[in-house]
Design goal:
The chain has 452 residues and is α/β, with parallel strands linked by helices. The protein has 18 helices and 15 strands. The chain has a seven-stranded mixed sheet, sandwiched between helices. The protein has a four-stranded parallel sheet with strand order 8-7-6-9, with helices on both faces. A two-stranded antiparallel ribbon has the order 2-3. Strand 12 and strand 13 form a beta hairpin. Pfam families: PALP (PF00291).
Length: 452
């Protein structure tokens, strides 16, 4: 019998999140105050986050216990399955063995509840009444609305304009879970009005939507801000993916040779990769770890490693990361969740240490991989993980040429049931690959703060 999936019982679900920082050769650079350029302390983050999350953001502990209330919600869909992609392997004619960790089984249809649930829990414990946030494709907004409903919080979401227009049913799903959605840039904030004043039909960006959500949260003592990627505590929460994957690969009798994931802000990729990186650093395995990003928003492969703002209006602390410049507005590609100008500071640091590699892929190649995956594995992937699938196809075909029987592991971070307009654009031949000129990159990078 051919075995397609490797499952864990609920009692095998991880009870701790993994923090990679203590295992790295050197710690990442600290965030800086935007005015003084001095390292900030926890008090600087208190207007936006509850203290429990701030402590996780700066912790030096290798493991953080998951609260029982969070574990109880996780059990609605965790542990998620690990699949062997027999159909895709056969179609590619490759000797490689491809495994994918499928996070589309969550209530929101993606990996995002892995952090939305603990963020809502800790805010509720701190007496917060309302959460504000941004969302691109809508998966994060959906996850936070779901988690907020569970813990009795209001949820207000600024959705990037291009995705708001492309994905109306994501908006409906957020509203079904009880969230309120605004098209960003909006007239509701000074940050939004400033952008609209320059261009009335602005497509928006994650940086702009973050500015709007942060502005509203900072003005209300009963409101806090929640971020779906980028920050250390978000990446920490996502490590349940990789911890489960290690147990499942053991069930399959496999050791990974290549680990591939899509990257926008970096949470899904880090969630899979960091526990496997721990094993690599300990000498127990030696996989190549590869990030795949959109060619139209290539922060790792085309950006600079510098201190920059996490948002467009410059409200956040300065974080050292691979950035295209906080003023960069990506093309309105269909992978809305990957349209962020910077990469998670912790992932950027790991990249600078030479512990992972990165490639950038155009969206038409990604959707070709997504369609092939749907026709061979039966799951329509979200546009974001089609980037990882494109990376897997490249690696599997290289194995076909070389004859190597590599084990390829990836994270399929969500389904594309609410992204079918994107597939329609691809299948009808209307999808185009936007070429970003060097001048556009240079213009945005010119706005990166000069810190001596």
């Amino acid at each position: 019998m051919v075995r397609h999936k490797f499952l864990l019982d609920e009692e095998q679900m991880p009870t701790r999140w993994y923090n990679v920082i203590p295992d790295l050769p050197s710690p990442p650079p600290p965030p800086l105050h935007p005015g003084t350029h001095e390292p900030i302390g926890p008090e600087a983050l208190a207007p936006l986050f509850p203290m429990a999350l701030i402590e996780q953001e700066v912790t030096a502990e290798r493991y953080v216990d998951i609260p029982e209330a969070v574990l109880d919600v996780y059990r609605l869909w965790r542990p998620s399955p690990l699949y062997r992609a027999h159909g895709l392997e056969k179609a590619l004619g490759t000797p490689a063995r491809i495994y994918y960790k499928y996070e589309g089984v969550s209530p929101a249809g993606s990996h995002k509840p892995n952090t939305a649930v603990p963020q809502a829990y800790y805010n509720a414990q701190a007496g917060v009444r309302r959460l504000t946030t941004e969302t691109g494709a809508g998966q994060w907004g959906t996850a936070l609305a779901f988690a907020s409903a569970l813990f009795g919080l209001e949820c207000e979401v600024w959705q990037v304009g291009a995705s708001y227009d492309q994905k109306p049913y994501r908006r409906t799903m957020i509203e079904t879970f009880g969230g309120t959605v605004h098209r960003s840039p909006s007239e509701l904030t000074a940050a939004g009005r400033a952008v609209l004043g320059e261009r009335a039909d602005h497509p928006g960006s994650l940086g702009i939507a973050i500015s709007e959500a942060v502005e509203v949260a900072a003005q209300d003592p009963d409101t806090r801000y929640a971020l779906g990627s980028v920050l250390n505590h978000v990446l920490l929460h996502q490590t349940v993916i990789g911890e489960e994957a290690l147990l499942q690969l053991e069930l399959a009798g496999e050791t990974p040779d290549v680990v591939i994931g899509c990257t926008g802000g970096g949470s899904n990729f880090a969630g899979l990769a960091f526990p496997l990186l721990r094993e690599k650093l300990a000498g127990r395995m030696s996989p190549v770890i590869r990030a795949v990003e959109p060619a139209s928003c290539p922060s790792l492969t085309q950006g600079v490693y510098a201190y920059d703002f996490g948002d467009t209006a410059g409200m956040t602390p300065l974080m050292k990361m691979h950035t295209l410049g906080h003023d960069f507005v990506p093309d309105p590609i269909h992978a809305g969740g990957l349209r962020y100008h910077g990469m998670a500071p912790l992932l950027s640091h790991v990249y600078e240490l030479g512990l992972l590699e990165a490639i950038a892929v155009p969206q038409s190649e990604c959707f070709a991989a997504g369609v092939q995956f749907a026709r061979t594995e039966g799951i329509v992937p979200a546009p974001e993980p089609t980037h990882a699938l494109a990376g897997c196809v490249r690696e599997a075909l290289a194995c076909k040429d070389s004859g190597e029987e590599k084990v390829i592991v990836t994270a399929l971070c969500g389904h594309g049931h609410l992204d079918l307009a994107a597939y329609d654009a691809y299948l009808s031949g209307r999808m185009v690959d936007e070429a970003v000129s060097p001048e556009r990159f240079a213009s945005a990078l010119a706005g990166v703060p000069a810190l001596g």
